[in-house]
Amino acid sequence: MTLANVRKRSPWRAAACLLIVSICAPVSHAAPSPAAQAVAITGVTIIDVEHARALGPRTVLIEAGRIAAIATPRDARIPADALRVDGRGRFLIPGLVDMHVHLFNTFSHRTPNDWTFPLFIAQGVTAVREMNTNAAGIAVVDQWRREIGSGERIAPRILAAGIAVYGHSPGEAASDTDAAIRAGADFIKVFSEVPPAHWRAILEVAQARLVPVVGHVPAGVSLLDAAAAGQRSDEHLMQAYEACSSVETQLMNERKGLEGDALIERRDAQEARALDAFDAPRCARIGRKLAAAGQVQVPTLVLAHEESMRSDEVLSADPRWRYLRADERSRWQRALADPAAHADALAKKRWDVSRRIVSTFHSTGVTILAGTDAPMPGVYPGFALQEELELLVAAGLTPAQALHSATLAPAKFFGLSTMAGSVATGKIADLVLLDADPLLDIRNTRRIDAVLLGGHLLRRSDLDALLETAARAQREPSG
Q1: Are residues 215 and 289 in the same domain?
Q2: What is the DSSP string of 6-40?
Q3: Domain containing 18 — which CATH number?
Q4: Model confidence pLDDT, tens digit, residues 33-56
């Protein structure tokens, strides 16, 4: 397939282009394997995320950034100059994808969050979806993509980056959507406060241009209406709490005619009623309709769980605190110093209902994608994706299904499953080598022996060095 054809066929233009172009350029900065050198992982057990099974032992040969061959050790043909990695007793999975991150600070206007990159890589997160930037940020993303492709930067692939649109009128929302697409946005994001008329104008323009609309289902739009209209994803279970309650119609009627802050204030005031009215049979009916419509859910359970667990504990006591940039530490401290940010009965109820909704949606066929909202206060980049997988299992997914939500399911969402998302011949060699079987215990995805980025090997010592360099950079005064 030519690059021109990729642009025509896939609404996720940048994602496809990124995975096709410049994947075998050399990686500098602590990458011990030269670009041209093949890598052979011998005797490893492959985790087949498509069929939820373990296959092994196998020898996986990686050449020019892709998986060139998979064979039994007996049948493997390994080039004499290949770098051999002993995979015996280890397990190979696709690189993990975090489907909801923020690499830009569009509201506070602070510098981009490139400090997060080593944290993602060290936790096996080899790709992310950036959820809200602007035209200037799209240019930065394009530069990062070039640097990742050329080997100048060790970072996760940025599969897509979007621009949020609101508009003071439906006409302005439509023109802002057009401007965002012309600026290179891979998708249009909507927030909860977007009025229904504006949201419809955004959808009309974006769909005409074959650009996906994702984000919060607006507070004035029902979850099923959003799915039927073509909003591709719902983040944080927005409007799912209402949809899975027995009082959705009443709540939505009370919001009619409201916009912006007034709409959000009314929604927030209704939250306890929505949570208390959770209706499992109704939620199952909603789930079946969502599955039929094809809208995916990115529940970011780690965010709801973190909010339900907040206390007066000192942030700096967390060993991961040292990886945060100074301005990010200040932001977290300010946010969590507010007594209103501490866990209360409502936050605990929200977490309980969130888990029940995810369990119900999953059981009715809704596609669940793993995402975290990092770096929201308390949500550590990279580490949070590991936590999200564990919380998905706690919500009823099997370890194999949770792993699927962070590997092959994102690849399918982007239309890239022929190039990424599983350990298979011909696919890009973004891989994670584990010391224990994740199908037995999802927590084993934390036991990382090595990460491969486009076939370039980062051993455990390299990953530790990345983290130490990141921590040292935060200790040293800037400029």
Answers
A1: yes
A2: HHHH-S-HHHHHHHHSSTTSPP-SS--S-TT--EE
A3: 2.30.40.10
A4: 445 589 999 999 999 999 999 998
Query: Which residue do the tokens 């209209």 mark?
Result: 229
**What distances in angstroms separate CA 30 from CA 33, 151, 301, 386, 433, one per listed residue?**
9, 11, 33, 24, 18
pLDDT band at 9 (very low <50, low <70, confident <90, very high): very low
What's the pLDDT tens digit per position in 439-459? Answer: 999 999 999 999 999 999 999
Residues 74, 10, single domain; the answer is yes
- 8-state DSSP, 340: G
Does residue 375 have a cis bond before it (omega within 30 degrees)? yes
**Residues 398, 403, 406, 408: is their CA dihedral positive or negative?**
negative
Residue with structure tokens 């370039």? 456
Q: Are residues 43 and 128 in the same domain?
A: no
Is there a single domain that holds both residue 40 and residue 176?
Answer: no
Asked whether 177 and 188 are in contact (CB, 8 A), the reply is yes
Q: How much is the pLDDT for 13?
A: 52
Residues 87, 100: one domain? no
Residue 15: its pLDDT value, please?
53
More confident residue, 312 or 19: 312
Do the domain assignments include residue 471?
Answer: no
Among the residue ranges 10-19, 164-173, 311-320, 330-339, the one predicted with the least confidence is 10-19
Does a structural domain hold residue 477?
no
The residue out of 397, 413, 429 marking a domain boundary is 413
Over range 297-310, report the average pLDDT. Answer: 94
Q: How far apart are CA 228 and CA 241, in angstroms?
A: 18
Q: Residue 236 gets which letter from DSSP?
A: T
Domain residues for the domain of 354 are 96-413
Radius of gyration of the chain (CA): 22
Local structure of residue 84 (DSSP, 8 states): E
Q: How far is CA 190 from the centre of its chain?
A: 17
Closest CA to 71 of 82, 55, 52: 55
Are 313 and 355 part of one and the same domain? yes
pLDDT per residue as tens digits for the range 348-374: 999 999 999 999 999 999 999 999 999
**Number of domains forming the structure of the chain:** 2
- For the record, the structure tokens of 468 come out as 């130490």
- Same domain for 332 and 313, yes or no, is yes
Q: Are residues 172 and 40 in the same domain?
A: no
352 vs 96: CA distance, rounded Å:
26
Which helix (H) or strand (E) covers residue 43, if one does?
Answer: strand 39-48
For the ranges 66-75, 144-153, 351-360, 365-374, which has the lowest average pLDDT? 144-153
